[in-house]
Model the fold of this input.
Amino acid sequence: MNYRWLLVGLLGLISSLELLLAQTRRLTRDDIATVRPTEIHDVFTNPGKGFVTFQRFNGDTTNALRRCCGDFKEDYPLPVLRDEKGHLINTNYPNTSIAYLRWYWRFLEPEHGRYRWDTIDRALETARERGQTLLLAVAPHGTPGRGQHDVPDWYRQMVGERTAWAHDSPVNGWTVDAEDPRYAKYYGGFIRKIGERYDGHPDLEAVDVRIVGAWGEGAGSALLTQQTREVLVNAYSDTFKKTPLIMLLTDERTNTYGLSQADMGWRVDCLGDLRFWADDPDKDGWTHMYDHYPRAIIQYGMRDAWKQGPVSLEICGTFPTWKEREGYGLEQVEIHIRGGAQVEGVVH
Done:
């Protein structure tokens, strides 16, 4: 050991400590500030966590969008709610740090190649003005049917009038053939355009991965061929490299493939179902909370996804539904809220 260099090092350390002590001694009472935080009873709005506003923003008294998932209302913005100090407030729930807005494809690409970026830009700007970030979702279509819930008119004319396909459900069926190569080309292509334009936007919190079925909630996703599945998932994973992605629990192959392409979080859309369909003889007492979610999180490979991406929990029904129709008491509510609060990510 070279003791000479060790001695030099120790002398240098001692010299630095003496200098630090000398500077500390020169501090006077005027240089020291004592801070005693004032106790408040407000709800802390943590960025990226907690409840979200859906189809509206902090301070709104009604939805900002027409119908389910359309354009902004003509008379929006409406007068907002404020407290006596001028702060934005929401009726019956606290302010949130995230605004969740969902559109149908038809409203954002009303003509092939003509994109309504102004709609998304407006949502991002409004979210920022209201102290929020935007959680964005684009669904291919709504419930089986026509009109405002259908795919874009130009795409309907391209693929024909048939609306019953492989997953033919009265609630969440396919209104177009997801295995038609044009579906991945045009719907997937539009998702890519969104990613190319908005990935990494400072006011964009996260993006829902929606690939098939009514509201894009993945009904029948297990029926997809692997080629179609990959093209649709990659429309998100290839273009959203900075903005977090959230994937609905759908099926093992889709979720596993999604995780292989990006650090995706997960979402579910029926938080609170302890017995919503318990009396349905076809369900045999089946529930989302006890039977589906615990098993699916593990089987679909999403067990550790919360460590790398947001988690979003969409309520089943509403809080009044829980109380008035389902008869939930405080114990049942605490199961959901306390459990959700322990998960990193978004709860709405």
